[in-house]
Amino acid sequence: xxxxxxxxxxxxxxxxxxxxxxxxxxxxxxxxxxxxxxxxxxxxxxxxxxxxxxxxxxxxxxxxxxxxxxxxxxxxxxxxxxxxxxxxxxxxxxxxxxxxxxxxxxxxxxxxxxxxxxxxxxxxxxxxxxxxxxxxxxxxxxxxxxxxxxxxxxxxxxxxxxxxxxxxxx
Length: 170
What we know:
By secondary structure, the protein is an alpha+beta fold. 16% of the residues lie in helices and 36% in strands. It is built from three helices and eleven strands; from the N terminus they run H-H-E-E-E-E-E-E-E-E-E-E-E-H. Strands 2, 3, 4, 6, 7, 8, 9, 10 and 11 form a nine-stranded antiparallel β-sheet that branches. The longest helix has 14 residues, at 156-169. It is elongated, with a radius of gyration of 23 Å.
């Protein structure tokens, strides 16, 4: 019996092809294997992690003014390597860049915050992502309103404190 006939019999009942290479397919080795990090570097050993979709604030300079921008992380790159998470201790590294989607801020209504504790809420805006060095951001842990369209709730003194913290870093 020929080799091709044996391979076709062995792989007849497989539902998913994992590799185009026959030797790998017979050995059931995946087509794409996850690459190991070079020299064992780990970016998420910190207890506090910055993860994709985490809320952050940064400063934006426009019209001769400095504005506070609230956003969500939608990309993390360290030395051109894409990451899903990174420790807060690496935020000061010059090689770490983050991409954020800017969110809009508007006054919170009683429908948004029934307890009327928070002054501001976020909303999604159609705009491009900003790619900036990570030392220009400050991670947040805001109140989250869950529902059909989730959003973050903020108090004015908290936003002022975040602005002051970021200005001091400049």
